Amino acid sequence: MIPSGGTECFWQFAHQTGYFYFSYEVQRTLGMSHNRHIVATAHTPQGFIIGTSQDVRGQINFSTQETGFYQLCLKNQQNHFGSVQVYLNFGVFYDGPEMDHKQNERKQLNDTLDAIEESTRKVQNNVFHMWRYYTFARMRKMADFFLLQSNYNYVNWWSTAQSLVIVLSGILQLYFLKRLFNVPTTDTKKPRC
């Protein structure tokens, strides 16, 4: 939850040869305002801005150039009267370790084992990327769920309010119609002329 006009920051450690991914989506807003736009920024360990996104949902992807803690900030500066709930997914992945001299020797000795390792590494990398897409789809599903829930509550509230207005107007009409045909009588219970 990011309060109105507030900022939330997160840090993620990454080595120099990694690929950083950061995706977000505003799930719902709470409060009077329904502006779902936020500002997301990614900073280097030195504090320089790498990427910026200003929308309801977005992604910032980049390759890490230096080792250190990368800062991710979410700002709710456009929404002054309500807080927002944001779904986050971020991390670092590496394509694979560099081959050193011992691995080159082993590759010459046993090509079958290296082929299996390479295939396993590729499968593991593909599974990781499938997991990323799955979490992105899950994020979209939750945003749709909260929008549906909000619309459901809105329709129920207005239906109840309109039903009360209809019943109240019927009671008032009945009261004024009775009053219109109400004939005052005298003490002897005879109608006046």
Notes on the protein architecture:
The protein is α+β, with helices and mostly antiparallel strands and about 190 residues long. The chain folds into 2 domains: about 1-95, Jelly Rolls (Sandwich), CATH 2.60.120; about 95-180. Helix content is about 40%, strand content about 30%. The protein has 2 helices and 7 strands; from the N terminus they run βββββββαα. Strands 1-6-3-4 form a 4-stranded antiparallel beta sheet, with no helix packed on it. Strands 5-2-7 form a 3-stranded antiparallel beta sheet. Helix 1 crosses helix 2 (about 110-180). It starts with 6 loop residues before the first strand and ends in a 13-residue tail after the last helix. About 10% of the residues are buried. The model has no long low-confidence stretch (mean pLDDT about 85).
